């Protein structure tokens, strides 16, 4: 009895380990299948209204499942029976007439080719928008499942359903972070989203590069900090102040005071200024990340301003050379420096500049740079 209980506990632990495992629940399903005497098996995570399911399986070819998900799931009499009895663990012989099942198009055109015949299965609501469907199968030679196997799996199914829900939540959160990161990467400044303790929840590529240099600013165990203890204390105080405003009651208007700002020194004497903006309760970022409290913006005087020449070309109808000139001027280069780099005369560069001014409807080089630095090309820079 103790040995059986111990094995069940190990299976339950392995189920929850699958929540954050790259292989999903493959390994634990195979272990459960071994206990049940099953040669095939899978657990599906099916978002409400979705045709395609996330599949965790063992014992058969993934391409076979892709065909099942695309062409056969709704024609599978087991799936239809399970959907009619949500939350119940079933044996196929209990709910589908064996003779009718073996005459079905689904069995003869699909399932028989996999070698599977008998199934122990169920469809379970995992959340308001997610269904977990699990099935373990045997060949005809291995015979049908009995009451003992049904009872054994019944003790594990609640854990499997919870784990499916947890995995779905984790994957959704990661997808939100990826989407947020892509959006932040379009911002030219280094920016990061912090929780109330200063932990970096998401940062764009520019911020990660800044932290990675460990020159003044860095992260310690994922939390924003500074090399100087005094400046580190100032950072933490500024974050706490911004977070306090972020956590103010929704009916309270934001304070009109300046946002907290801290200057962090660096080895070459050129400091980084960090501004902390509170993310108020109704901020859309907080809808996606409940822990988000502060938006940190890093102002780096050493950062070279760049625009995307290809996008500038599309936006303003520029030639390749004109777009390259636009990018060079936006970065602060002079006309002479551009001409030298391109191997052309300064007069030729002036001709390109004249056309560039005409196409951007500007009259002076300063106006041209302003148009470039406030345009969309600033937000699609490729690294």
Distance between the termini: 61 Å
What is the average per-residue confidence, as pLDDT, rounded to a whole number?
A: 84
Give the helix/strand class.
alpha+beta
Radius of gyration: 30 Å
Beta percentage is 15-25%
Shape summary = elongated
* Oligomer state of the chains in this structure: single chain
CATH-wise, what's the superfamily of the largest domain? Transcription factor LuxR-like, autoinducer-binding domain
In spatial order, strands of the major sheet run: 2-1-5-4-3
Q: At the third CATH level, what is the topology name of the largest domain? A: Beta-Lactamase
What's the total helix number?
Answer: 16
Number of domains: 3
SSE order in H/E notation? HHEEHHEHHHEEHEEHEEHEEHEHHHHH
> Main beta sheet, described?
5 strands, antiparallel
Q: Mind telling me the CATH class of the largest domain? A: Alpha Beta
Helical content stands at 40-55%
In the predicted model, the low-confidence regions spanning at least 5 consecutive residues are: none
Assigned CATH architecture of the largest domain: 2-Layer Sandwich
Give an overview in words.
The protein is an alpha+beta fold and 383 residues long. The chain has three domains: 173 residues, Transcription factor LuxR-like, autoinducer-binding domain (Beta-Lactamase), CATH 3.30.450.80; 113 residues, Beta-Lactamase (2-Layer Sandwich); 71 residues, Winged helix-like DNA-binding domain superfamily/Winged helix DNA-binding domain (Arc Repressor Mutant, subunit A). The strands form three sheets. It has a five-stranded antiparallel sheet with strand order 2-1-5-4-3. The protein has a five-stranded antiparallel sheet with strand order 7-6-12-11-10. The longest helix has 39 residues. 31% of the residues are buried.
């Amino acid at each position: 009895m103790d040995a059986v209980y111990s094995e069940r506990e190990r299976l339950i632990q392995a189920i929850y380990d699958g929540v954050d495992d790259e292989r999903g629940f493959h390994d634990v399903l195979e272990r459960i299948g071994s206990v049940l005497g099953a040669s095939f098996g899978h657990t599906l995570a099916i978002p409400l209204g979705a045709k395609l399911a996330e599949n965790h399986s063992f014992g058969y070819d993934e391409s076979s499942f892709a065909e099942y998900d695309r062409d056969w799931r709704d024609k599978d009499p087991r799936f239809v029976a399970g959907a009619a009895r949500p939350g119940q663990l079933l044996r196929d012989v209990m709910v589908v007439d064996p003779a009718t099942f073996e005459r079905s198009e689904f069995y003869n055109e699909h399932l028989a080719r996999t070698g599977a015949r008998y199934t122990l299965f169920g469809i379970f609501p995992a959340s308001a928008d997610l269904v977990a469907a699990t099935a373990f199968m045997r060949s005809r030679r291995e015979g049908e499942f009995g009451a003992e196997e049904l009872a054994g799996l019944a003790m594990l199914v609640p854990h499997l359903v919870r784990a499916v829900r947890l995995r779905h939540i984790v994957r959704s959160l990661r997808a939100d972070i990826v989407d947020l990161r892509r959006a932040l990467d379009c911002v030219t400044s280094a920016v990061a989203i912090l929780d109330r303790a200063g932990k970096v929840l998401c940062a764009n590529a520019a911020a990660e590069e800044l932290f990675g240099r460990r020159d003044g600013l860095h992260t310690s165990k994922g939390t924003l900090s500074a090399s100087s203890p005094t400046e580190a204390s100032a950072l933490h105080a500024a974050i706490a102040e911004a977070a306090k405003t972020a956590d103010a009651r929704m009916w309270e208007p934001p304070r009109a005071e300046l946002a907290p700002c801290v200057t962090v020194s660096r080895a070459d004497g050129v400091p980084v200024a960090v501004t902390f903006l509170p993310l108020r309760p109704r901020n859309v970022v907080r809808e996606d990340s409940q822990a988000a409290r502060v938006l940190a913006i890093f102002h780096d005087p050493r950062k070279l301003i760049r625009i995307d020449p290809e996008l500038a070309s599309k936006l303003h109808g520029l030639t390749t050379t004109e777009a390259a000139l636009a990018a060079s001027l936006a970065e602060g280069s002079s006309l002479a420096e551009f001409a030298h780099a391109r191997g052309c005369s300064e007069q030729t560069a002036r001709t390109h500049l004249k056309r560039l001014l005409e196409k951007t409807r500007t009259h002076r080089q300063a106006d041209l740079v302003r148009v470039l630095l406030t345009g969309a090309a600033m937000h699609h820079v490729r690294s």
